[in-house]
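Usage

Read records sequentially. Each one opens with the input sequence:
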Amino acid sequence: MKSYLPFAMTSLVVVCALAQAGPATADESQAIVLSKVFDEGNDGAFTPVVRSVSTSPYVEEGIFTTALGGVHVPEAFRYEPTSHGCGNGHNCGCDPRWTVRAGALWLHRSAPDSAVLVTDSFFPGGTTLLDASDFRFDFAPGFELDVIRHNVRGSGWDLQARFFDVENMNASTPTVIAPLGAVIQFPVPIGNTGFPNTITGSYDSQLLSTELNVRRQAGPEWLTVLAGFRYLRLNEQGLTIFETIGPLTNLFPYEINTTNDLFGGQLGAEIDLLTQGRLNVSTFGKAGLYGNNISTSAQVIQASTGNILFSSGGNSTTNAAFVGELGFVGAYRLTDSLSLRTTYQLMWVEGVALASDQVAVSDVTGGPSTIDNSGALYQGFFVGLEYTR
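and closes with the structure output:
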């Protein structure tokens, strides 16, 4: 994880650097009608308010006149908040400059597609001892950080940097007794028959994402569109099949590893579904096309010595991939600036090399190996805090 943090922090520094110009100056803001701010006259009517000279975005700190003329009287002004105030309908009389979200993330990887990994025979038709679909992943913890700089340089565009990392999605299978022996189903099968063996397996997967987006409210205030760049790393290092041979308990780990580095662009949107008091409910969706740099390897190890007995070497290729993400968000405002935020999200990744698919195409005896691509579905929950100012 530490090797990825500089990349994520670089994205956050870019947001801060581009945002330093800040909002419009006082001279630029003269005679701007303040949205949703009204002057209540003696007759009970409300008229728009114009900011004449002010260095502050807050109603109570500025100097104002009504559009029809008059003297500034602070208690005579009334602010009517919108759902896009200082975050989740905050009644602060201004648009936000920064939004920071941070918290814990739990992700679950879908079970691999069915693929025969181990049988009790060197020939087709043997009894299956281990199938890829036997691996069932648990929810794994990680963290997420999301920073938004609103209205960069007074352009109306927001700049967003988002990073998350979940490193320990694990699955394992129970020990299987193989009275007739066990054979790993590489293109040229490797194993032993004729005496009892035991087979068990473990599977580790990691997912990391960094994205940098530009965002803008599009027409209705409940709709925000975005476009940006995303880097996604999917590591499956790795799938390990443990074979214990005979009464001497001679242990042989078979290791299959894959790395996927995805670089590409994405488009998306966020939609406010409901704002009721302190509660805001929204949804978001993103989709993008990516170039995926893939590397795979497979090897057989003698556990007692650590020697590599067989290896397919390193295989690499580049192909197209797809990433789609969908989420539903609930935010409850604790104060004007702080909210409790929870998200349920789904992510579909297609065009990636998964470790379980490489057994059948990785020849550890030195013959030709290829790379097989498929997809995985991730789902999970985010729980954290959102701070807006």
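Summary fields computed downstream for this record:
- The first helix runs from residue 5 to 19.
- Helices lie at 5-19, 355-358.
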